[in-house]
Structures are given as C-alpha cells and as structure tokens.
Fold this protein.
Amino acid sequence: MIKSYEDYLYYLKSDQSVRNQKITLRTYIYNDVWKFQRLLRKLEYLSNCKKNKLRRMFVAYRFMRIRVKLGFMIPINVFGPGLSIAHYGSIIITSLAKIGKNCRVHVGVVIAKDRWTAVAPRIGNNCNIGPGAKIFGDIVLGNKIRIGANAVVNKSFPDDNLLLVGVPATAVPVRP
C-alpha cells in the first residue's frame, strides 16, 4: 500500500521496470494500459495520503473512464509494486484480494472472494497468472507461483515455486 510520495514513485518505477517495453513519450500518450497503471497508482497515493478531495475526484473520474474502456475491474490497494498487465481485456479482481509484488496478469483473469465467508485470495510475490485463470475462495498461494491458462484455483497452495494447471488446479513439477 502506498503511504508516502516516495512509495508512490517506487511503485511507479517498479511497475515500469517489469514491463518489457521502454517507456517513451509515445508510450505515455498512446499506451492505454500504462495510462491505467499510472492512474491506479496515483489514485492509491491520493486516497491513502492526500486530503485534496477535488484532485482525488478528478483522478478517480479519469481512472473510471479508462477502466471501463479497457475492461479492467482492478480496485486500488490490491497489488504490490511491480504490477504488469499483459494487454487490455476483461480482468476482474475483488477489492479484498491481496497480491504481492511483481505480479503479471493476463486477459480473462478473475480473482474473486468466497461467496459465503467473504474472504478473498492472498497471493505471494513473483506470480504469473495466465489467460483465463480463475482464483476464488479463502486460499493462500505462495511465492513464485505460475498459474496456467484457464486454470481454476479453489484450494490453497502455500508452497513456493509451483506451476498450477487444470480444472480444478493441481501442482505440476517444475523443471529446474
């Protein structure tokens, strides 16, 4: 969670460093996914640190417009530093989820809370969530987790360095 201006700059720099794309003036103007990430971090900073309601409302309005345009439902204060969104498309994440640093999210991902207990997933650092993956319920995923395309994760995998595939997801041995 961003708690100071230095944290805000660190989060932006981390988000920028995990992208496989050089950030140029053209990227700032035409890349809508990068605009979304910048507005997400700015809104986190303004919501957590600043008291200027007018500026926060203006940034929230811009954030909501680009969020609808790209098909993202990513709330603030969910991701740690180093968020990487592969490209635009439907991404739905609950506001109760907690996801560590250096996470790559592909299109069609759903991270949802449990319907009965209202507890959301907690995902560790350095995770890669493949296209169409569904993660829901009161689960904990360890660090360096890779979730395959269209996998449905509905139970905890607290171990590190796993590959999860299938419906329901099972751990597959990873070659070194």
Remarks:
- The mean pLDDT is 91.
